[in-house]
Amino acid sequence: MWTPQQKRRLDEDCQILSEDPLSATTKLAPSPAAANDEIAVVAERGKVACRDYPHPRSACAKNPFSTTPHERHCDECFCYVCDIAAPCLSWRGLGGHCHASDKDKKRKTKRLMVKQAMQMG
Ligand SMILES: [Zn+2]
Ligand SMILES: [Zn+2]
């Protein structure tokens, strides 16, 4: 007599990346060279995705937008305005695209931009 015992354990590691409902992006200004509107600009702070996958400069995990010069960027940063890899042709400067972020489109943060520009000098 024998009793077949098969014990199967399926350890399924489901990692659910929930999108931040607060980071809803609203497009106000038309992007000059943005033909692809389907690029999901999801600002997920502190997640690995921000380091290993292309992300807007404002969502960079290597160079936090709030504490590092905006002109700085990593290999995966892309221009929020041009939708191309950073730096773009208009990356640097006072009105450079490096300052663009999803939040900038909601609020006008010119003061902050000037402040950042002066710090970079
Ligand atoms: Zn980056
Ligand atoms: Zn640009």
UniProtKB/TrEMBL annotation:
InterPro entries, per the entry: RPM1_Interactor
Protein name, per record: Uncharacterized protein
